[in-house]
Specification:
12 strands; eight-stranded mixed beta sheet; 43% helix; two-stranded antiparallel ribbon; alpha/beta; Band3_cytoplasmic_dom; sodium transport; disordered N terminus; Mannitol-specific EII, Chain A; transmembrane; glycoprotein
Length: 768
């Protein structure tokens, strides 16, 4: 938007009547040159504006580049405008100017720090008591106060309207820019800003009083509401100060302590922070969020709002030097470096909000962040915004919904290419590709020595070995323990039962559980990968089935052959470790990993459904029942008509005389033990008909899946505080299994259970 636009409906359309762009006479010595600068102003590529500094301070002089000196020398020799104009445009792009600014020498007062940005809004109307309310904050990504003001949203990538960015640019053109202001309180800052407004605009006394009153209103932060009913947290300032580069000594009531009590804390020397007028009440500080603030971070406060007595906006961008801890202004007690103030007439609150979001978001940009610290005049800030606009991607309004929040990327793209000199705007320089150093880190590099990789792994692990155990002594690790327990036990027992069926009991649940326990303990103690889940998988089950069938067909001892295969596998693993063959892992693609993971999932799902289908055969549905004949249904134990050899041998070994046994009086367990037969219309395939088992198993099956999925996604719901939701989500699987087991026990339906012996012994005595 041009600086002289006359649009009445834009918050930034005003132009101060007594202010014109100050033109550097040294660079525009002729009438023709002055005319060219006005054309450039209307094109709004480069706008030279004198920087208005606080009274009594000298502004910094901006050094000219070598190209600028050469052009001025050319003018002295009579060079014409037509010859110099295109050269100036070709070599003075926003990107090049930003690169020049970032290349200037740093002094102690302009060293960039990490920024925490906070957006506060106010609406002052006659007769109403107003206060500043925190609506959003930026650490790296944007977080908004959700509707109702009860909690913060998840961090997300801020999406801005292009119009608000242009309005922000116009704000910096038309507003007050005060760089390196020295002030110790918000009162001093307000007075200096309003002094500048009076110098260059018709700000009357009554309006000044109203604006100053608005700027000095109390700031209400979102975390204060939820802490009103809590016991104030007493914590020494030394503990809080561990996260900050400039700790302020505090007593337990949050008041400042004399410097003599803490001689090592010198705020003026370390960061120039003056806390003389800035006591901090630690009971109002969100200590959990404070831990996320980087060490040495500073604050950037964006204040936007509506004041009913204003007829035009008041805009100011302030950079404090040194940074000052302003009590009650920021959510966390860190020194404030930047302030952006935008107060305007009532009715355009949403417009002001979007401009404030644009200012806060652009302050989180890595390049503009450094420019803001090193800027020496208004044009430097404008160049930073222009360079930011050059990198902006615009989405068509009909193809994207701005209300959709974009999740933060796992890896933030590097911005180093924006800092490289000699790159034309909009183009990316061609960089020679670096030599490829391998597919992965040093742990997968071949050493060329016998057991070289193992030795290096031990050296890397040894310094952190004991600390890993100390780190595990945390409540947060309890969820991981329980999850790993369920994650390890479930497949081991499940596949143990499947192996028992496939191998006729030669390798069953107890053997699988014992083997998984021993290998898991050994692997966790010596491999340093405690979170790796070891156990039987789908391919192992397929292999065991094939091997058992092979042994059965050729009359081989299955367990003996299985032991030989295990020893041979161990020998091959030792050879692979000795020759650093593990480096070949880096050639396993993501496709291969996903293929095996998918195979395991498919086998799990298939086996679960197959088990459910088999239940229908074991516990069939008694369909078409004749209710009038229920009294005639029976299932009794009888003597087998054609006993097999195994049954006859059992009777002989136990001296059982079948004619003396009262078969009809035997219980189900006794009948099965005596190898009797069940006869009658109420008998199933394996004994008396048991009702409800199939349907109850289906209920358990689907309820467990649905409940586990629901609890896992409970973390993103709107119920309960964040900590409770996170805990429920972390313990989702354990809570589901525990709940369903208790329900199954209370209902009492004889659903099938996995039989695990209470003592460790070989299931088949013959061991074949």
């Amino acid at each position: 938007m041009p600086a002289g636009s006359n649009e009445e409906d834009s918050v930034l359309s005003y132009q101060r009547p007594d202010e014109e762009a100050v033109v550097d006479q040294g660079g525009t010595s002729t009438i023709l040159n002055i005319h060219y600068e006005k054309e450039e102003l209307e094109g709004h590529r480069t706008l030279y504006v004198g920087v208005r500094m606080p009274l009594g301070r000298q502004s910094h002089r901006h050094h000219r580049t070598h190209g600028q000196k050469h052009r001025r020398r050319g003018r002295g020799k009579g060079a014409s405008q037509g010859e110099e104009g295109p050269e100036a445009l070709a070599h003075d792009t926003p990107s090049q100017r930003v690169q020049f600014i970032l290349g200037t020498e740093e002094d102690e007062e302009h060293v960039p720090h990490e920024l925490f940005t906070e957006l506060d809004e106010i609406c002052m109307k006659e007769g109403e008591d107003a206060e500043w309310k925190e609506t959003a904050r930026w650490l790296k990504f944007e977080e908004d106060v959700e509707d109702g003001g009860e909690r913060w949203s998840k961090p997300y990538v801020a999406t801005l309207s292009l119009h608000s960015l242009f309005e922000l640019r116009s704000c910096l053109i038309n507003g007050t820019v005060l760089l390196d202001m020295r002030a110790n309180s918000i009162e001093e800052i307000s007075d200096l800003v309003l002094d500048q407004q009076e110098l260059f605009s018709d700000l009357n006394d009554s309006m000044r009083v109203k604006v100053r009153e608005a700027l000095l209103k109390k700031h209400h932060h979102q975390n204060e509401k939820k802490r009103n009913n809590l016991i104030p947290i007493v914590r020494s300032f030394a503990e809080v100060g561990k996260k900050q580069s400039d700790p302020h000594s505090m007593d337990k009531n949050g008041q400042t302590v004399s410097p003599q009590s803490v001689p090592t804390t010198n705020l003026e020397v370390k960061n120039g922070v003056n806390c003389e007028h800035s006591p901090v009440d630690l009971s109002k500080v969100d200590l959990h969020f404070m831990k996320k603030i980087p060490t040495g971070a500073e604050a950037s406060n964006v204040l936007v709002g509506e004041v009913d007595t204003l007829d035009r906006p008041i805009v100011a961008f302030v950079r404090l030097s040194p940074a000052v801890l302003l009590s009650g202004l920021t959510e966390v007690p860190i020194p404030t470096r930047f302030l952006f103030i935008l107060l305007g007439p009532v009715g355009k609150g949403q417009q002001y909000h979007e401009i404030g979001r644009s200012m806060a978001t652009i302050m989180t940009d890595e390049i503009f962040h450094d420019v803001a610290y090193k800027a020496k005049e208004r044009d430097d800030l404008l160049a930073g915004i222009d360079e930011f606009l050059d990198q902006v991607t615009v989405l068509p309004p009909g193809e994207w919904d701005p209300s959709i929040r974009i999740e933060p990327p796992k890896n933030v793209p590097s911005q180093e290419k924006r800092k490289m000199p000699g790159v034309p705007n909009g183009n990316v320089c061609h960089i020679e590709p670096e030599p490829h150093g391998g597919h992965s880190g040093p742990e997968l590099q071949r050493t060329g020595r016998l057991f070289g990789g193992l030795v290096l792994d031990i050296k890397r692990k040894a310094p952190w070995y004991w600390s890993d155990y100390r780190d595990a002594l945390s409540l947060q690790c309890l969820a991981s323990f329980l999850f790993l327990y369920c994650a390890c036990m479930s497949p081991v027992i499940t596949f143990g039962g499947l192996l028992g069926e496939a191998t006729e009991g030669r390798i069953s649940a107890i053997e699988s559980l014992f083997g998984a326990s021993m290998t898991g303990i050994a692997y966790s103690l010596f491999a340093g990968q405690a979170l790796t889940i070891l156990g039987s998988t789908g391919p192992v089950l397929v292999f065991e089935k094939i091997l058992f069938k092979f042994c059965k067909d050729y009359a081989l001892s299955y367990l003996s052959l299985r032991a030989c295969i295990g020893l041979w596998t161990a020998f091959l693993c030792i050879v692979l470790v000795a020759t650093d063959a593990s480096s070949l892992v880096c050639y396993i693609t993501r496709f291969t990993e996903e293929a095996f993971a998918s195979l395991i999932c498919i086998i799990f799902i298939y086996e679960a459904i197959e088990k459910l289908i088999h239940l229908a055969e074991t516990y069939p549905i008694h369909m078409h029942s004749q209710l009038d004949h229920l009294s005639l249904y029976y299932c009794r134990c009888t003597l087998p008509e054609n006993p097999n050899n195994h049954t006859l041998q059992y009777w002989k070994d136990h001296n059982i005389v079948t004619t003396e046994v009262h078969w009809a009086n035997l219980t189900v367990t006794e009948c099965q033990m005596m190898h009797g037969e069940f006869t009658g219309s109420a008998c199933g395939h394996h004994g008396p008909y048991t009702p409800d088992v199939l349907f109850w198993s289906c209920i358990l099956f689907f309820t467990t899946f649905i409940l586990s999925s629901t609890l896992k996604t409970f973390k993103t719901s709107r119920y309960f505080p964040t900590r409770v939701r996170s805990m429920v989500s972390d313990f989702a699987v354990f809570l589901t299994i525990f709940t369903m087991v208790i329900i199954d026990f209370l209902i009492g339906v004889p659903s099938p259970k996995l039989q695990v012996p209470s003592v460790f012994k070989v299931n088949r005595a013959q061991g074949t």
